[in-house]
């Protein structure tokens, strides 16, 4: 709801972030003004939010992270000895051995970094930043390592395919989705062909073994 969203932003600024002086919060508090989006966009720039005004979910998440960080800064003595329930029984040696175990995934800087990497690598956004980080790791391992790059440079280019010549068999009602479905179907067919090739190779290997059995006359049977 638009009104609730605007009230939420005002509450964050008034109660937690407090970036503006009280007398400077008038435009942000005027949630019924037609110019409120402009005031909100200016506010995002003033607090150095890395997201655009259209990216509401990411913006809300980032502002919440900022609010939590500021709340902790104002009450550091209260929170400094707090320990997450799941970490009370962890082994300190294991913590020291794993440099990323204490990584704060709620830190706005961490989330902004993951988002920047995802945008750079053209990875689909996800609500869970850890899922996005795993996707980045997989992409780097499979496409950007030296071995992966060397292997890709040796691969032969495929032949161009005219999608309009391949019948999809159903209609999603969206031309873009239809094209994506055609591509997925062609990729699936290619995978099936590779699987069939491997099955054929396995059959040939088995036939090579059973075509020349060892005969043991003492046992009165063929084979072992």
UniProtKB/TrEMBL annotation:
Pfam families in UniProt: RLL
Family, according to the entry, reads as follows: Belongs to the RTRAF family.
Q: Which PANTHER family does the UniProt entry name for this protein?
A: CLE
**Name of the featured protein:** RNA transcription, translation and transport factor protein
Q: What gene is this protein translated from?
A: Rtraf
């Amino acid at each position: 709801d638009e009104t609730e969203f605007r009230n939420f932003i005002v509450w964050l600024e008034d109660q937690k972030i407090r970036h503006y002086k009280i007398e400077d919060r008038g435009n942000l508090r005027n949630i019924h003004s037609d110019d409120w989006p402009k005031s909100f966009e200016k506010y995002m720039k003033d607090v150095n939010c890395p997201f655009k005004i259209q990216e509401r979910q990411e913006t809300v998440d980032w502002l919440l992270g900022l609010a939590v960080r500021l709340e902790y800064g104002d009450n550091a003595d209260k929170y400094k000895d707090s320990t997450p329930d799941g970490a009370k029984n962890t082994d300190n040696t294991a913590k020291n051995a794993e440099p990323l175990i204490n990584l704060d995934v709620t830190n706005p800087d961490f989330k902004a970094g993951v988002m920047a990497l995802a945008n750079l690598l053209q990875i689909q956004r996800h609500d869970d930043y850890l899922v996005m980080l795993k996707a980045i790791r997989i992409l780097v391992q499979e496409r950007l390592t030296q071995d992966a790059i060397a292997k890709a440079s040796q691969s032969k280019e495929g032949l161009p395919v005219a999608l309009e010549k391949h019948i999809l068999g159903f209609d999603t009602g969206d031309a873009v989705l239809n094209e994506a479905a055609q591509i997925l179907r062609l990729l699936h067919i290619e995978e099936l062909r590779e699987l069939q090739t491997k099955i054929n190779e396995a059959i040939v290997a088995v036939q090579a073994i059973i075509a020349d059995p060892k005969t043991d006359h003492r046992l009165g049977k063929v084979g072992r």
